[in-house]
UniProtKB/TrEMBL annotation:
One GO location term (cellular component): nucleus
UniProt-recorded name of the protein: Family with sequence similarity 120B
Organism: Nothobranchius rachovii
Domain of life: Eukaryota
Length: 135
């Protein structure tokens, strides 16, 4: 869910809510970032490169395909066809190589992504959509 990308209160899943026991799943951004090797400041770019409400998968298909190609070369056990999980891992690895993961990066879209200006502008719009007022 995109809600884990926002810097806000923890996200509790309504879809996983068990009415009988009143339990659900809580998504933890910090734990997600630790698991995938990204900083929380990199999550909006990851979400945009995977496709979201602002940036369609079609707009970032070339970047994603390139990330999957690179991932396959580095991972000899990769599948011949890229299941969605492999795409997520490949794009995560790409994002981890862009800019500074410590949040000191001043550009919303790192120049090292080498995206054309129209795509950079769209990615900036997508990343900005995850910023809450005052952030």
């Amino acid at each position: 869910s995109d809600y884990i990308i926002y810097d806000s209160a923890p996200y509790l899943s309504v879809a996983k809510l068990q009415i009988n026991s009143l339990t659900t799943v809580m998504y933890d951004r910090q734990k997600l970032c630790t698991t995938i090797g990204l900083a929380v400041t990199q999550l909006p770019l990851l979400a945009c490169l995977l496709g979201n409400d602002v940036v369609s998968e079609e707009h970032v298909r070339q970047i994603r395909n390139s990330a999957v190609e690179t991932y396959r070369r580095a991972s000899p056990a990769a599948y011949p066809r890229a299941p969605h999980g492999q795409v997520v891992l490949a794009v995560t690895r790409l994002v981890s190589t862009l800019g500074s993961p410590d949040g000191e990066q001043t550009e919303l879209v790192p120049w090292s992504l080498n995206a054309p200006v129209p795509l950079r502008d769209l990615l900036k719009k997508g990343i900005s959509s995850y910023l809450l007022p005052g952030q």
